[in-house]
Design goal:
Elements (H helix, E strand, L loop, with lengths): L1 E5 L27 H6 L6 E6 L9 E5 L6 E6 L14 E5 L2 H23 L1 H25 L4 H48 L1 H5 L2 H13 L5 H7 L2 H27 L4 H42 L5 H11 L6 H5 L1 H11 L1 H29 L6 H14 L1 H19 L17
Parallel strand pairs: 1-3
Antiparallel strand pairs: 1-4, 2-4, 3-5
Helix pairs in contact: 3-4, 3-8, 3-15, 4-6, 4-12, 9-10, 9-13, 9-15, 12-13, 14-15
Length: 433
């Protein structure tokens, strides 16, 4: 039976070279001093000094005396029915590996593999459910507002009809403008890049035409979310998602309250309810502000592109508005396609106009909008939204990018309020039968 203690004190490894065997009589034999013999009176036990790399066999007991400051160990080899006398200044711990603990670890591993396989098999449906939860959380304030002026069922009906109308309008605009606009841009962008290379050595050294063609090929290449996007295009999928959103609007608050009721400690339950309500409010505020910013930026860059007779102004504005969601620099980056076309097709004067519009919108976003949004909701930097949006697009297409970013906002909003205990927050919603 092996017993391990950690030696206390400020000693170097050279103070204990090699291995030492403590004698029985304590008279300093076998390299032992009298002082060491007094300090370690366990006679008849072999002691060796080594780094803490030793492993025990299954089912054995380990007696471990632990001190945090020093990382060298004395190992006592004793009889199976004996235990060492722990020197002063050490703490004793006992660790046992039982068949039950091994079975628990194996069972947890098997369960993790099963859950992973289930998620891979149903990741599309899980994504739809998460999207419906996000949409329901955004529509809940509208339903509660209408509920004050009409019956609950009518308020929910008006809310769902508003969602359906907005979806049809957005989808129709995408079908009418985006597809033709992308085809036009794929033809005009290389021509504009070639014109810039002829007039600018910097563009030529940058190999602008090659990079533009590579970007167009990347955009045309379908992501792994293409199959998901095709499935989402089915009318039955829209119907199922609408029913699921309505379900969360009706029973979501009740489900939250039932989850909170599982917490027995009233103080902890109150804190979690407060934090959840405040996080949902902050997340909704951030997302609503982001949607409004997208509309304003898209309208500004799109109108400027239309006034300058650039090709596909709707697509240029949509790109600027969507990429402009990235804080601090998104508007400038999203305006680069419009800047390229203006400089390559129309000349530097129009390029200066596009740059001026982009800088103005970015300055308003940083100096005015961002400060107010951060005070009213939650502060989010530029890195995480960009990373999550790219991953979501690669996995689920444009819908994955949108709902992934929205889910990230709610997650950061909840983490932001973890340290708040006494700040009043709105209720998560009325529970109705």
């Amino acid at each position: 039976m092996h017993h391990t203690v950690e030696r206390e004190g400020e000693h170097d490894a050279d103070d204990y070279p090699g291995q030492h065997a403590l004698g029985v009589s304590g008279d300093g034999k076998n390299g032992e001093t009298g002082e060491q013999a007094e300090q370690y009176p366990d006679r008849g036990a072999e002691v060796d000094l080594h780094d803490c790399r030793r492993r025990r066999r299954f089912g054995c007991w380990l007696w471990i005396a632990h001190r945090v400051r020093h990382r060298q160990y004395l190992t006592f080899v004793a009889e199976p029915n004996g235990a060492p006398r722990v020197p002063p200044g050490f703490r004793l711990f006992r660790i046992r590996v039982t068949p039950g603990s091994v079975a628990l670890v194996l069972g947890a591993s098997v369960l993790a593999v099963l859950l992973r396989n289930a998620f891979v098999a149903a990741h599309r449906q899980i994504g739809w459910a998460v999207a419906c939860v996000i949409v329901a959380s955004l529509l809940a304030p509208l339903a509660d507002l209408l509920d004050k002026r009409m019956p609950r069922w009518l308020a929910l009906l008006v809310t769902m009809l508003s969602l359906a109308v907005m979806t049809v309008v957005v989808w129709g605009a995408i079908i009418v403008n985006v597809q033709d606009g992308l085809s036009t841009l794929s033809n005009e962008a290389p021509r504009a890049a070639a014109s810039l290379e002829r007039r600018s050595e910097v563009a030529k050294d940058f190999r602008l035409v090659e990079r533009v063609n590579s970007l167009i090929a990347t955009v045309r290449r379908p992501s792994q979310g293409t199959a998901v996007g095709q499935a989402v295009g089915a009318a039955g999928t829209y119907f199922v998602c609408g029913i699921l959103t309505l379900f969360f609007l009706i029973y979501g608050p009740r489900m939250l309250r039932s989850a909170f009721a599982q917490i027995r400690d009233p103080g902890r339950r109150t804190r979690i309810e407060r934090r959840t309500g405040l996080a949902m409010q902050n997340g909704r505020r951030y997302i609503v502000a982001a949607i409004a910013q997208t509309v304003v930026v898209a309208a500004g860059i799109g109108l400027a592109s239309w006034a300058l007779s650039l090709p596909a102004p709707f697509v240029l504005g949509a790109l600027a508005g969507t990429i402009g969601l990235v804080p601090a620099l998104g508007v400038l980056v999203g305006s680069l396609p419009a800047l390229l076309l203006a400089a390559g097709l129309n000349g530097w004067r129009d390029a200066v106009i596009v740059v001026g519009a982009a800088v103005l919108l970015q300055a308003v976003e940083v100096l005015v909008v961002r400060k107010r949004v951060d005070r009213a909701s939650v502060h989010i930097g530029p890195a995480l939204p960009a990373i999550v949006a790219l991953l979501g697009y690669e996995l689920y297409g444009i819908g994955g990018a949108m709902y992934g970013a929205a889910g990230l906002v709610f997650l950061i909003a909840w983490l932001d309020v973890l340290g708040i205990d006494n700040t009043p927050a709105p209720d998560v919603g009325d529970v109705r039968t």
